[in-house]
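Write out the 3D structure for:
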Amino acid sequence: MAIETDPPRVVTAHRDIAAGAARIFGLIADPSQQPRWDGNDNLAEAPAGQRVRGTGEVFTMTLTVGTTRENRVVEFEEGRRIAWQPSEPGQEPPGHLWRWELEPVGETLTRVTHTYDWTRLTDEKRQVRARATTADKLRASLAKLAELAES
């Protein structure tokens, strides 16, 4: 039974960004760009040349603490939706997911929805950080992404 003080296990934030969906999606689907807009201040760098083009792909990322993460792409629609599950190299994903959904509102305006879903996260060591991933953190990523996309 969930205690009322438990945070939601699916956290979502939205923002309208004054840029086309293709430009925004390009920043999200290129892992080497992700540290530039990470509102969690968790991503240090990713090797260039990993631009995601479909489900089943895996890209790697170095975290600010120096460890490497593999990210398995589990949802993909070019220009519209991308989601991945992070894990330690060579390990099965522990059960959390990052999702980005883009909905063009016009040629130069896109509604972007960012979701962090940890409903299937079973690793108790990771749950502390998962609980700390609030809508404010997602909004911070959206704000940084908007700044890049709109410039």
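The mean pLDDT is 93.
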